[in-house]
Amino acid sequence: MIRFENVSVQFDQRRVLDDISLTLTEKRIAVVGANGSGKSTFVRLLNGLQTATSGTVTVDDFNPAKDGRKLRRHVGFVFQNPDNQIVYPVVEEDLAFGLKALKLPKDEVHRRIDEILARYDLTDFKTHPSHLLSGGQKQLLAISGVLVMNPRYVIFDEPTTLLDLRNRNRVERAIAKLDQTVITVSHDLDLIADYDRVLVFDQGKIALDDTPANALSKYREMMA
Amino acid sequence: MIAGLYIDGTSPLHRAGAGIKILAMIALGTGVFLIPDWPVVTVILATVLAFYPLCGFGPSVIWAQVKPIFWLLSIFFAVQLWLNDWQAGLLVVTRIAAIVLFASLVTLTTKTSAMLASLERAMGPLRPLGVNPEKVSLAISMVLRFIPVIATVASEIRDAQRARGLDKSILAMVVPLIIRTLKMADDVADAIEARSFDPDETAS
Lengths: 224, 204
Prior knowledge:
The complex is a heterodimer of chains A (224) and B (204).
Chain A: E1 2-11, E2 14-24, E3 28-33, H1 39-44, E4 54-59, H2 68-74, E5 75-78, H3 91-99, H4 106-119, H5 135-147, E6 153-157, H6 165-176, E7 181-185, E8 197-202, E9 205-210, H7 212-223
Parallel strand pairs in A: 3-7, 3-8, 5-6, 6-7
Antiparallel strand pairs in A: 1-2, 1-4, 8-9
Helix pairs in contact in A: 3-5, 5-6
Chain B: H1 12-15, H2 18-34, H3 38-54, H4 59-66, H5 70-83, H6 86-109, H7 112-123, H8 133-163, H9 170-194, H10 199-202
Helix pairs in contact in B: 2-6, 3-6, 5-6, 7-8, 8-9
GO cellular component, one term (chain B): plasma membrane
Family (chain B): Belongs to the CbiQ family.
Protein name (chain B): Cobalt ABC transporter permease
């Protein structure tokens, strides 16, 4: 369970998030809003990439402000641009990067890598240079790099923005199959149409908090 | 491209430890400069070349390693021919070719991760001096990873500037490249943090 209690974030004189209080228990949660509305800051609070200026964030038993490193194994984060997330030059080496911190036996590391590569049809690219993958394959590798850690939650920050339609659909299917709780920030409203809950951010506040059927139509009106 | 050199295989050289291969590379690099006779260095070069088919690499792979230095070797040979004689030219050229081809062979048969793991072990004794081998290893892997990414960014910027008729302006190329690289560095730092990298914890 994720709980926000009177959370505010301020950068210099600008209040990016303003007194947010809510509890998230659903499996699929979408976060939408205009550029600069505070949605990325909101999700960055969930794994300690951002700390609150005031208020408390709790993710299960973790406080992101204090337990940042432990929490990041519990809450995976997939960024918009996979090129910035893949840090090793070869596919299997990049997947092993996060696992290093878990100090798993070698056999378990190989088993997890092989399993995740098979799940996303990347087995043939195991020893492939990561920079030579297609855009969609890179995003799937970035997702694999997070899922290989077996996180409880996965945050996607605009995961389909840079992809063509085919790869966007691949990523959508990959997200749909996840057992984890998923929190997705997106401008792609079709991607989140089947989610359980939608939070619409506007100027650092939650303007709408509803089902997709209700929230998205109102959001479209807001943005018209 | 540096980042894509490793070619998968099962040859004895593929299976050999990265540390042994790096030590052999250092020994060969030093050794060929201690040998003053071109026939001996030529035999060493021939031996290095013989390893290529043993590792499953054909002439095209050998040529790919020699091609970038072909003109440099030609110039060295010509200068030595002019200053000394053809034997001196051959000695210089075979020395450099042997070193480059062996170094390439090591890179072609060694995964970056294995190379970096050896480097981390070798730097272990420097830990009391404040050197963190995990951070050095990550930095090197990221250099290898991001060379092609930055090359792609540079190419995108060049195309965008050409489209605006600014193809002769160095500033128009360099300024956006620096800005985008710095922005990318921020994003990459976030991603590394998000992926639980902890150099102090991984140290053991």
